[in-house]
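anyone seen this seq b4? input:
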Amino acid sequence: MKLVLAWALVGCGEPIERDPLAEPAVVPPAATLRRLTQEQYLNSLQDILGDQVLLPTSIEPDTEVDGLYSIGASQTAVSSWGVEKYEDAAYDLAEQVVGEDLRAEFVACEPTDTVDDACASEVLSSLGNQLFRRPVTDAELARVVDLSAAAAETLGDFHEGLAFGVAGLLMAPPFLYRQELGTWSDDEGQYVLSSHELASRLSYFLWNTTPDAALLAAAAADELSTREGLLAQAERLLADDRAREGVRTLFSEMLGLYELDQLTKDTTLFPHMSEAIGPAAREETLLAVDALVFDDDGDYRELLTSTRSFVDHKLASMYAVRAPEREGFGEIVFTEDDGRRGLLGHISFLALNAHAVSSSATLRGKAIREKLLCQTIPLPPTDVDASIPEASEDAPTLRDRVAVHLEDPSCAGCHNLTDPIGLGLENYDSLGMWRLTENDATIDPSGELDGTAFADAWELAAVVAEHDDLTPCMADTTFAYALGHSTVNGEDEAIDHAWRLWELGGYSVQQLLLQVVTSPAFRYVGAVE
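predicted toks r here
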């Protein structure tokens, strides 16, 4: 797959007034250190140390900022508890690395004495280059070699001393933090990321893990300093199966799918509910994303309208369809009679955006506006009662109860933005299962989104898919995920430029990823404050 450039401008959407191949201007915000997320930390350790190493199970938790862990990683500090957990993990991992079972894989040299700086330097330099995602400096290496020597002399054993040096590398900021800070370039008038910094940014963006040997070799040869070299590596990474995991993480953060691990519903009202539902629902959505992005290289908007999905036995019973496989997940195709299609029909979306005992037009409408259209719904005033009236004979359905609620002018402003959308999903209960009635009253699933009416959830999916804000929102979210910050006005031109080229490429998500990588917003950073 090659990057689609503006080779078909005539008759393809709105005309681009400027030269589509000219690099847009960008004024990035100040660069920040980005702590590895939990997944990035664990993925990096596994890729560097191997599958045989037992990984830590408790480290500093991720923090969501503006809907993304990747932004929170650049804005939150490590707690004192987190420091202790990183230290515990470092020493545990180091002991495994130098232990008798794994020593031969990491310690190629044979120490000549209890203190052997040459052998320690060889081991720590090789491991440090991988952990730091760049060559370790002489000062950095000397520090951990001296630490190993002092520990070995005290403990009377070379390998026990070496464990302290390895732990030092595992606790060092260049490993725990992505130091993508750039250096000033007079030629470009910007702070520009080095090839090694770009290798780190590229790998964590597309693979959600540390750069592999080939990418580090390309960085060492300074091949990523050119657009062509960066694009070649990006295409290589996208062709690797690890890109599937990277894209899963992007969509998991964007849609909040990690919250499904803590999904709770009242089991007396929803007997299908179990601990397995949340993870299974997440897997259904991620398998649909995987098929769309990689198997089909399809149009992003089809995530809303596709009738294809992937379910296991549990989900099949909840969707009232036949399980396609005896074990695990298999493909199914919904029909209009089933009443559901695309993301808005997935249990992941419906169950997440509902209460434990009831559906919620407000939460579902808010999720559509904020997660898919990048619109902001203001918080309710603190002195306003935001609760919906209980069901009654006069107001049996949620639509009826919302109508009563909206008689309060202080509530109507925000709820008119969300509820007319969310009511279109009322044929799905709190857990996402299909229903035609509520409290014995027929549900009316009609509604409207920004002036476009729909009759039911099936039509709502098409309305959202064609909304003017859907694809620009995806572009903006992908940039924010890749850059580790909410996008700023100085990046608008670059993001708009990438979005327009993405439009020409038929809204292929793979094309969007490449547009982000080759954008100047990906290569430039602001001065460190």
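The first helix runs from residue 38 to 49. The longest strand covers residues 308-311. kinda curious what u guys think
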